[in-house]
């Protein structure tokens, strides 16, 4: 069993930033990296919108740098995948696929995955003309022809965004109508750069091998019951916009989530409904989905966790309880306003449901 004051689940920009901040606050965080060390940026190539670099940098390189920085300030980086958590008791527990149990006084959770079509050629050209993020990679297709796959709000928004950059935007949808909101559809249909290809799906992304780049897609008609064939469309870039899956499977039934399984946090905060548990980056964000916003939220989560742990420690001192007594169960509510409300449960025999309010300013 491994214990730390802070457990960080996931090693994307949010996780590493949270690690850097909590390590520098002497909280000795442990980070469980998951099956994709470095997160989503490791599956892309050029990154041009992360501030601080005069030249275009590579996604995997950026994540290696973040890992090194987190490690050098004292993060315990662990190769494992969390398969279950128990937030119903304190300290919180998480069990890894390795069989190891991790316990922590606070938890920061991060991460999501873009959904992909799952075809081999999509994988081959990923980062070389195939992307799942128009905001991130659209710029590379200035005055070129691109194709967006999907029929929901995200797909239409991505297609509209790309019309500002590309010369022509195809939207390919496997049905004969879109799920996107009417207002978005109106904007899409009235844009002269857009052409919608209905009842179609990508069978293959085609392109060159040296250097790797996309030249077109082979489309299959979804209503072609007789297998009459495919059509090829010449494009320079393909954007898959069929949704994202936040990495929240392990939190089901324990943390409040919305109907798309994104973790719900308090406004302007990373606090979840469980005091001491924070959510940062794409695990809670379906609006911005950027490395820099994820990193920003990782910073917020670290500062909030730090404040929570400091408040908890102060209160335990006041109550005369050993901070390391993990049987203790405590909720700290609204300490951000400077007032901490503490409901003490585990030491009921000693404090018999003590409910106290103390001012935390200056502690
Ligand atoms: C193709 C592509 C290109 C992109 N390009 C750019 C770009 O150029 N610029 C930009 O700003 N953004 C870009 N993005 C978006 C950016 O990658 C994300 O917004 C960002 O990575 C989100 O960071 P995150 O910290 O929330 O976690 P993610 O990067 O989503 O990382 C999730 C982490 O959680 C871990 N994890 C998941 N489940 C578990 C578990 N049960 N136990 C332990 N660990 C777990 C994973 O292993 C992973 O390390 C791109 C995204 C994609 C898909």
Give the terminus-to-terminus CA distance.
31 Å
The CATH architecture classification of the largest domain is: 3-Layer(bba) Sandwich
Q: Flag low-confidence runs.
A: 323-363
Total domains: 3
> Could you say which overall geometry the principal axes of the C-alpha atoms support?
elongated
Strand content: 25-35%
Helix content: 10-25%
The name of the CATH superfamily of the largest domain reads: FAD/NAD(P)-binding domain
Query: Could you tell me which ligands this complex binds, including any ions or cofactors?
Result: flavin-adenine dinucleotide
Report the strand count: 22
The biggest sheet, with number of strands, parallel, antiparallel or mixed sense and barrel status, is: 7 strands, mixed
Q: By helix and strand content, what is the structural category?
A: alpha/beta
CATH class of the largest domain: Alpha Beta
What fold name goes in the CATH topology slot of the largest domain? FAD/NAD(P)-binding domain
Q: What letter string, H or E per element, gives the SSE order? A: EHEEEHEEEEEHEHEHEHEEEEEEEHEEHE
